[in-house]
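ok here's the first one, seq then struct tokens
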Amino acid sequence: MQRYLIVQLARFGDLVQTKRLLRSLAGPKREVHLCLDRSMVPLARILFPEVILHGIIAHRSHGNAWKTLLENRPIFDLLAETTFDTVYNLNFSPLNFRLSSLFDPEIVRGYKSKNGQDLIDSWAALAMRWSKDRRIGLNLIDFWSGYIPRPCAPERVNPVAVPRGNGIGVVMAGRESRRSLPVPVLGPILRTAWMKNGRNRVVLLGTTGESAAARALIKDMPPDLREKTVDLTGKTDWSALVEEVSGLDSLLTPDTGIMHLAAHLGVPVIAFFLSSAWCHETGPYGLGHTVYQAILPCLPCLEHQACPHDLQCQSPFSTPKFLRLFSTEKASHALPGLLGMRSRLDPLGGTYSCFAGDDPDAPRRAAFRHFVADHQGAKGELPSKQEDASFAQTFYRERDWLLPSAQKQTFPF
């Protein structure tokens, strides 16, 4: 029996995006374990019933650090006593580095500690270099699955998205308000989607923190739409959320965990990406999804820095021209500062193609995908294109060429 451990201590969306790695490791005579924040355990039981879960306290904002360590001690002891063939430590955080010290560093991929020194292996180090040029992008699902030489085919990750018959879901906001559309902008888009969908049921989703925005949205609705709308913000546990999302015709959303849940369930996503959200990094994975991506020169930005442009990336979504594009999905209705994109898959993983607007980064992104495929030993699986040698010159370091196995290298960060 082979045993693998994935340490994924990030939150909702990141848990769902670990799916390709989990699915790639699963198989006969293989036992897959997942260490995660204990608040995510009920959801993980629903999403990945075949995986053995180890819930720890990973995100306590207050309290004594020693108390947290003592509460986690039973899980840490169990993990240390279990023989794993490989540990995939996915997050760059102090807790991840400390947790990795439970294992022989030779079996840890990603982030590890060895002889008191924190190390990062070559695949993660390479990603840190290319992430400085975020417009070329690689979906996070494919990055995490890239820790193994031959992950499962992208088509096996999520089902093809199709309408399920129970109306439109609307996610009110994500964790970062700049990445979400304000109520006055979202309202007309929802009305357009509702009429396009046959004036069916609408359900509002989110945490208790989005309840005020949901009430404001309902207040501004025309009476016929208001009668068809159900506000479930702050009213669903994980089980109820999965059940609700699984029956939708489509989900309107910014870049959120519920978006990734819908893709996992095969529900069509219509996503609005702006500010620091970039669909080529964290967009809905699989076939059948639509993304409207703001494409101003300053994007994608850093969410922890103040916006010097008065959130101009929201402007394209607030115009009647966007409602026309949203309604027709015609290339002739494209507007400046915005791309209409459809999800697709290639042998490397998830990506997007434009149906409205001109993506200036598309040729370079295609060349970058060839670079990554070549690095992963899968270059021949992608259609032939002209190479861009600058990627190797920019992202590789001399030690990458000197050591025999790039997959096993680890370096101080």
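and now the second one, same deal
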Amino acid sequence: MTRAEQYRDEMDRLVERLGFREAYDVFRARLFDQASRGLLTGENIREIVRQIEPLFEPAAAHQLREIEKQYDDTLTVVNGLYRDLTSVDATRDLSRVATIERTNRTRWGRYSRETVGFISKQVRESLSKNETSKQLAARFEQSVDGKVVKFADTLARTIVKGHGQECKNEKARLGGVDFFTYVGPPVVTTGIPSTLSHRLCIELYRSRKRTFSAGDIDQMINGQIKPVRAFKGGYRCRHDWEPDPFYSGKDYKVTMITVMDGKREVTFGRHV
């Protein structure tokens, strides 16, 4: 097993600990209890939001705590596997690592606000139609539950793995390593690509050479979540930037290409 594969296995083990379903089910039960007792009322969405926020916040706070518990573990994995790059450990005090932690917290806060708004609209519509608690539950099963839990899980996994990659990037920086190779499971690059393949990943895998400088990686855009140096192809990406201390950079020349992926721009590097 290569080091890159070992790193990926360790990160997969860490993110498997994350889960939003249990906390969400507690919130859901509290919400339906309030609805059954006639305690949810409101003439507009803003009033409903104010009533639902205190019910949802414990679930969101629980998930955020679980996410942040993984940060020290990702540092341990990186410092152990990449000790040959430098004996200096990456820490959570390093600027880029600290920045991504703050940004991740902001992302989670945005998810929480948007989710409360989405749930509130469903509740308000249910109230306006004088639906029973049982009908509200059916409404949630049809249009709310899966979306809320799935995106929470996707975001949690993405930002924990992004944190791990940023720790790896900092370990490389401390060791003076400036080149990274895009590694991970092969993707379909011809015909109809897998829905699990991000456009950035597809374009990078079309090139035989997938080693880039940190500066060039910073110019790339995946059209979903940034920076590419931390989040690679986007949400739930299975790839990694692996530090390459042996790449000399001789004859290294890359051009940046921007393509449209639906309504989003994706920018990637191609060796020339």
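notes on #2: Strands lie at 179-183, 211-213, 240-243, 254-261, 264-271. The chain has two domains: 3-174, 179-271.
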